[in-house]
Amino acid sequence: MSLNPEEALPLYGVGERRPPFATLDAVFRDAVETRPTRVMARQTGQALRYGEAGRAVAALARRIAALAAPGEAVALLLPNGIAFYLGYLAALRALTPPALLNPLYPAPQLEPLLREVTPRVILCTAATRPLVEMLAARLGEPAILCLEEGALTATALAAEPPAPWARRPVEQGDIAALMLTGGTTGLPKAVEHSHGRLAAALRRFEYNWPTRRDDEIWLPIAPFTHIYGFLQGVLAPLSARAEIIIPERFKPEHIVELLARHRVTVFGGGPPAIYAGVLAAANLPGADLSALRVCPAGGAPMPVDLLERWRATTGLDIHEGYGMTEMAPISGITALSGVRPGSVGRALPGNEIRIVDVETGRRVLPAGARGEVCIRGPHLMAGYRNRPDETAEVLRDGFLHTGDVGHLDEEGFLFITDRKKDVVLVKGFNVYPREVEEVLYTHPGIAAAGVVGVPDARSGGERVIAYVVARPGVELSEAALAGFVGERLVGYKCPGEFRIVEALPMTGVQKLDRKALRHLACDSAA
Predict the structure, then answer these.
(1) Portions of the chain given CATH number 3.40.50.980
(2) Where are the beta strands (DSSP E) in 340-440?
(3) H helix runs in 5-48, sequence order
(4) How many CB atoms lie within 10 A of CB 508?
């Protein structure tokens, strides 16, 4: 255990203080050594204790070390669950940066992401093995380890006898996660986060959503490959030495049943659609949720009506946070700061937020003035992996230029009012119009396409609308277009509606006028 210079900062809010671990490997080792018999995770009838997880991680790390040198990336194509924890923690132990990839992505989306991180090893499950083998053949034949099969089940790994470990201990500067993002352009980039930076992020996460050590029962929802789901579902519960309940799927009635049966105290939550779904569950009335204490939210702004309905139903407040792949969390609504409707809260300890003019990004604006949100803090990304130009574009004078537009009030509460970029926020996930448009342009019957987002009252975020122009003599149908895109994009990126039009609005230089298209979409949806 290494002392962290932030130890003196009030980084646990009203929660219980944690030791100042410098690496995520140290966080896990502490749980293994001090609580070996406590259940770490439950999933579909399987229970894994911290001591068992410690032995399984050591065994899997030996296999990874035999295939990859320190610094070579390991890609995780693993769903939320026990296999993810073991794969991620083993990659850390082996000093091989883990790249977190969504296993639900189809091949056309996964291939450029894998090329970006150039993994030496890919971890998968039986469900994705055929896809991984096909992609591996195009990527220089990285090694494949299929977890949850044969000798690579949690039980088999935990039963292996200990063996000497030749690699050095994990250090603060080692890369602890490669998070894939489109940044401001939509083109894939791998955000590098070191152990030290993620340890700092974890402390601020615990400040915003304070929890106890040893007494929490945790139910995460968001995908572990998403920055919110990663912090909320992986790092935070391990830091709390919590018992983690892994849902088989997100079905509201299933979630309510797990919350009640396991006496869950921390509900991972996430964007508004998660909470709205639980509130609509048929078995919620009469369910005993009296153990529930902490309800985090992130990924999309939470409507005031939804906050009030959750409070009226459970007696609990939802505490929101604001962050992004490059740095999370940034600000939050906490038990100490109080709640301000419409705001994403104040900057968390050690973080700094400033608003600059949108035109140049150089002039700092006063309270109340709207401009681009810029941030810095000890858990800001190290940069985009192997992309110095893109890193320099967004990191200037130590501040990250987020592309979000907002303002600070006189008391430091941040309000996000718009986005400088054209990203569509769907259930907490970024959808880049360009990516969807490029898929549409591969359809032989489409002459032109434009994609925008419109507000979605049901989810509290946005939904994707695609406008398409047919080639002469071709008849397009919405059903056929939905099937075409559905085979090439993950579900949340697929347009919720296709509108077949004669022409798209264009600017004077014959570029798609996305602003006009967005107005058209919003007017039609009203």
Answers:
(1) 49-170, 211-321
(2) 346-347, 352-356, 371-376, 383-384, 395-396, 399-408, 414-419, 424-426, 429-431
(3) 24-34
(4) 6
* Token reading at 7: 């130890």
Q: Please give the distance of CA 203 from its chain centroid, rounded to a whole number.
A: 17
Query: What is the model's pLDDT at position 510?
Result: 58
Q: Report the share of the chain in percent with pLDDT over 90.
A: 72
Comma-separated ranges of CATH 2.30.38.10 domains in the chain:
341-419
Least confident of 125-129, 229-233, 267-271, 424-428: 424-428
User: Helix, strand, or coil here: 192?
Assistant: strand
Tens digits of residue pLDDT in 474-522? 999 999 999 999 999 999 999 999 999 999 997 654 568 888 999 999 8
Cross-strand bridge partners of residue 99: 75, 178
CATH class of 49-170: alpha beta
Stated pTM of the model: 0.86
Rounded distance between C-alpha atoms, residue 421 and residue 404, angstroms? 7
Neighbouring CB atoms inside 10 A of 447's CB total: 14
Contact 74, 64 (CB under 8 A): yes
Task: For the domain made up of 341-419, give the CATH fold.
Answer: Luciferase; domain 3 (2.30.38)
Contacts of 356 (CB under 8 A, 6+ apart): 362, 363, 364, 365, 371, 372, 374, 401
Instruction: Could you please state the CATH topology (level 3) that the domain comprising 211-321 is classified under.
Output: Rossmann fold (3.40.50)
Tokens (6 digits) for 250: 């997100």
In angstroms, the CA 45 to CA 35 distance is: 21
Strands (E), 286-326: 296-297, 319-324
Token pair belonging to 290: 């009296």
Positions of CATH 3.30.300.30 in the chain: 424-525
Least confident of 20-34, 148-162, 304-318: 304-318
CATH 3.30.300.30 fits 424-525, yes or no: yes
Residue 3 has pLDDT above 50, yes or no: no
Average pLDDT over residues 149-164: 96
Strand, coil or helix: 152? helix
Q: What is the pLDDT of residue 334?
A: 86
Q: Which is nearest to 258 in space by CA: 39, 45, 38?
A: 45
The whole-angstrom separation of Cα 233 and Cα 296 is 11
**Phi, psi (rounded to 5 degrees) for 424:** -100, 130
Nearest to 89 by CA among 195, 227, 161, 220: 195
- The reported pLDDT for the residue numbered 431 is 83
Of 326, 348, 323, residue with least CA distance to 336: 348
Amino acid at 489: L
